[in-house]
Amino acid sequence: MPLKRMDNVGIVVDDLDETIDFFRELGLELEGRAAIEGEWAGRVTGLGDQHVEIAMMRTPDGHSRLELSRFLRPPAVADHRNAPVNALGYLRVMFTLDEIDETLERLRKRGAQLVGEVVDYQDTYRLCYIRGPGGLLIGLAQELG
Predict the structure, then answer these.
(1) How confident is the model over 56-63, as a mean pLDDT?
(2) Which of 21, 29, 30, 78 has a CA positioned 20 to 30 A from the CA of residue 59?
(3) Using CA atoms, how far apart are residues 30 and 73, in angstroms rounded to an integer?
(4) Distance between CA 40 and CA 97 in Å, rounded?
């Protein structure tokens, strides 16, 4: 059976409202919010008795989503937000946008910090990494030409 699509990427956050506002500023749309709890949810995740607040954020084209989760019960147990870009495991989400400098200016007002510098890659892309809310690593790309 062929794969149909990637549904979403999940990110655990400590401040759901701040993170929603940040990704809205980036250009994602809030698709919905919900509380997830109950016996069925604990069976899926293996965490047992859990209570999680989630927000689903959608890209403007409607094809990609981020599921932002804030765990109330049980609490988050590990923190990988300060891992360098060569750390093992899932690391960052990359977004393509129209104008990187203007976007960086807007996101800096929401606390974003440039990790390295904005660079041109083979006259094809301008690229950079930023740290967003709670230290999340986010990649930004602007197509050139």
Answers:
(1) 96
(2) 78
(3) 23
(4) 38
